[in-house]
């Protein structure tokens, strides 16, 4: 189904709005992928907070023109699905995990602001921990010294109470 000029402008505006807030764009070829698989991929994308869309390449070229993702323009050919996310790792992880299970989805290229990645770069990005995982590790690292300090402070009265209990037990047996 072809789009008229107004529909094309709407699509370009929608994709441009997503690209403006994006930290990564991952492009994959979906040739031969069934409707059931594509529906499952879209459901996973919604859960992960990834904007996933099949758009004509010419419309995407217009949407990324003048943005930090403009380097992707020369690499868009064929039936492509675009994963755009605010979390740099989310789109790469989603499409890489799905590509492992479905050989018909082939990752072609990816980009972060002012940096275009090849397939190996996208796979390396997919293996990195997500932002939430990194924040939880940082919080655990920051809490460790405080926790140990509290345990140390708590140990002094505990030893004192144990000493008093030992003296009491010794007097009771005597």
TrEMBL record:
One biological process term in Gene Ontology: translation
Query: SUPFAM superfamilies annotated for this entry?
Result: Ribosomal protein L10-like
Q: Show the InterPro entries listed in the entry.
A: Ribosomal_uL10, Ribosomal_uL10-like_sf, Ribosomal_uL10_bac, Ribosomal_uL10_bac_type
**Domain of life of the native organism:** Bacteria
GO cellular-component terms in the record? Answer: ribonucleoprotein complex; ribosome
**Quick check: keyword Ribosomal protein in the entry?**
yes
What GO annotations for molecular function exist for this entry? Answer: large ribosomal subunit rRNA binding
Entry keyword set:
Ribonucleoprotein, Ribosomal protein, RNA-binding, rRNA-binding
Subunit-structure text: Part of the ribosomal stalk of the 50S ribosomal subunit. The N-terminus interacts with L11 and the large rRNA to form the base of the stalk. The C-terminus forms an elongated spine to which L12 dimers bind in a sequential fashion forming a multimeric L10(L12)X complex.
Xref: PANTHER family: 39S RIBOSOMAL PROTEIN L10, MITOCHONDRIAL
Q: Which family does it belong to?
A: Belongs to the universal ribosomal protein uL10 family.
HAMAP family referenced in this protein's UniProt entry, alphabetically:
Ribosomal_uL10 (MF_00362)
What does the UniProt record say this protein does?
Answer: Forms part of the ribosomal stalk, playing a central role in the interaction of the ribosome with GTP-bound translation factors.
Protein name according to UniProt: Large ribosomal subunit protein uL10
Write down the species: Sulfuritalea hydrogenivorans sk43H
* Name of the coding gene: rplJ
């Amino acid at each position: 189904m072809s789009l008229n000029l107004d529909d094309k402008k709407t699509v370009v505006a929608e994709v441009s709005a997503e690209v403006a807030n994006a930290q990564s764009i991952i492009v994959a070829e979906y040739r031969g992928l069934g409707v059931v698989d594509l529906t499952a991929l879209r459901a996973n994308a919604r859960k992960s907070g990834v904007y996933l869309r099949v758009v004509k390449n010419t419309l995407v070229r217009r949407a990324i023109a003048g943005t930090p993702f403009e380097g992707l323009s020369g690499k868009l050919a064929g039936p492509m699905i675009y994963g755009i996310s605010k979390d740099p790792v989310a789109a790469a992880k989603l499409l890489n995990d799905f590509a492992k299970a479905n050989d018909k989805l082939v990752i072609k290229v990816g980009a972060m602001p002012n940096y275009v990645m090849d397939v190996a770069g996208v796979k390396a990005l997919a293996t990195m921990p997500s932002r939430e995982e990194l924040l939880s590790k940082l919080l655990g690292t920051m809490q460790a010294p405080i926790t140990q300090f509290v345990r140390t402070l708590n140990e002094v009265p505990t030893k004192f109470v144990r000493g008093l209990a030992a003296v009491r037990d010794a007097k009771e047996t005597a």
